[in-house]
Design a protein that fits this description.
alpha+beta, three-stranded antiparallel β-sheet, Arc Repressor Mutant, subunit A, 6 strands, about 20% helix
Length: about 110
Amino acid sequence: MELLLEPTHLCADDVVRRVAKKDSNVSRATVYNTLRCFVDHGLLRQVNVGTDRVFYDSNTAPHHHFYDPEKGELTDIDRSEVSITGLPALPAGRALDSVDLVIRLKPADPGRE
C-alpha cells in the first residue's frame, strides 16, 4: 500500500477509502486492525490530534507536527526546529519514551500583524 511508500499522514477513514477502491471486500475492522498492527511493529506512527481524530504517519523518525483542524491536515516539523528546555519529573518507576508536540493552527487574524 502507498501509505508506506512515501511520507504521508492519513486517518483510518482515508485508508478505508483507498483500500475500498482496490478491494471492496476488505472490512473497516480489517483496516483498523492492520493499522494497529503496523503501529505495534513500528511501521507507522500514531498521532493523536484530539479525542476524535487520529492520524497514521509513515515517517516513524522522531519529529513533531502542525495540525490544521480547519483543513484536516497534519504537517511534519523537523525536530531540529523545536527546542524543549525542560520536562517535569517523571513518576517513580517510569522512563521517558518520547515527546510528541502537536501545534494546533487556526486562521490568522488579518487585523493583527
